[in-house]
Design brief:
single chain, Signal recognition particle alu RNA binding heterodimer, srp9/1, 2,3-Dihydroxybiphenyl 1,2-Dioxygenase, domain 1, globular, alpha+beta
């Protein structure tokens, strides 16, 4: 068996390399590790490796199909934050920078916000409960909930203002932990 240790990087072919570089750097906080115009690409990092996202200019962007909801292949790239406060800050920062938040979800063990980059590539930022794999040895069930959104000029939605996970979320965790494993998780 192959012993993979993690995902190294994702390469995105983009319509406008400069616009994508600004988005990933200025909005999402990536740092440019290297630009290699001769071989194509901007190598960007979150700081724990040489590159996490590579951006390469598409040679004929006007002829290339944009990502579409429901297409085969990559649906989104997810970025984890270290605290619930960081998720709250990310939500506000995206809105402040004119990024449309498409949806938010409570996935029982994590809360997520979904949006897109300038080319329409799906992105997610999420916070996961500590020790989620230990909390859900039999899976987390299919109990996702849609969370309400707010606009840039409105107060944050209540689910972002509260401390999470709170008593309600932990009660759901305990209920799911007591359920027998589904055949898919055995």
């Amino acid at each position: 068996m192959i012993n993979l240790s993690g995902i190294g990087h994702v390469l995105l072919r983009v319509t406008d390399e400069e616009a994508s570089k600004r988005f990933y750097r200025d909005v999402l906080g990536f740092r440019i590790a290297e630009q290699d115009p001769e071989h194509g690409g901007v190598f960007m990092t979150l700081g724990d490796g040489f590159h996490t996202i590579d951006i390469a200019q598409h040679p004929a962007p006007q002829d290339a199909p944009k990502p579409r909801h429901g297409q085969l292949g990559l649906a989104h790239i997810a970025f984890k934050v270290a605290s619930y406060a960081a998720l709250r800050e990310a939500y506000a920062h995206l809105l402040k920078n004119g990024v449309e938040i498409q949806r938010a979800a409570d996935h029982v063990c994590q809360r997520s916000i979904y949006f897109a980059d300038p080319d329409g590539n799906g992105l997610e930022i999420y916070y996961e409960m500590p020790k989620a794999l230990d909390l859900f040895p039999n899976g987390r069930g299919d109990e996702d909930e849609v969370l309400p959104l707010s606009s840039a000029d409105a107060p944050l939605p209540q689910w972002l203002v509260e401390e999470w996970p709170g008593p309600g979320a932990m009660a759901k965790v305990e209920r799911l932990r007591r359920q027998p494993a589904s055949p898919a998780t055995n």
